[in-house]
Design brief:
There is one protein chain. By secondary structure, this protein is α/β, with parallel strands linked by helices. It has one domain (about 1-120). It contains six helices and three strands; from the N terminus they run αβαβαααβα. Strands 1-2-3 form a three-stranded parallel beta sheet, with helices on one face. Strand 1 (about 25-30), helix 2 (about 30-40) and strand 2 form a beta-alpha-beta unit.
């Protein structure tokens, strides 16, 4: 999805503002924030134009430490029934080695460092996206994980 988004952004720039491109701002909600981040490495030609990156309740760090049992059960059932690659990636079960997971690799990819402004909005009342995941914060439980 990130590669497709980057293609659409490049197409838009080429068609509508090839010589007058000023700033690029991205606003994403939920999975949209992760899709935007996965598109950024494909947009490196425009890194000097990146201005604002703003997300609302985006699971940047996945659902690994989601404390809501009902949501965890729902994700598990959907993974088993639909074989959803997206949910597998967000639960970080898409690889046996943690460092080979999509989300871990995304943290190593360039992109966020290009922006002058970054806003990550989350809510404690959000029962779908963990608070720390939406704000890209280290979770206390992670300190006990073996790497």
């Amino acid at each position: 999805m990130g590669k497709r988004l980057s293609g659409e952004v490049i197409h838009f720039i080429n068609d509508f503002c090839p010589k007058t491109l000023g700033r690029i701002t991205f606003i994403g909600h939920s999975l949209g924030g992760v899709i935007i981040r996965s598109a950024l490495p494909y947009l490196s030609d425009y890194k000097d134009k990146m201005y604002t990156f703003f997300t609302l309740s985006s699971p940047h760090l996945g659902y690994m430490y989601n404390s809501n049992i009902v949501i965890n059960a729902g994700i598990y059932v959907l993974q088993k029934m639909r074989k959803s690659l997206c949910l597998t990636q967000l639960s970080m079960t898409d690889a046996t080695n943690f460092k080979d997971t999509f989300l871990f690799k995304l943290t190593q990819a360039p992109g966020l460092n290009w922006f002058q402004n970054i806003g990550l909005v989350s809510s404690f009342q959000d029962s779908y996206v963990p608070f720390e995941s939406a704000r890209i914060l280290k979770v206390k439980e992670a300190q006990y994980d073996a790497m």
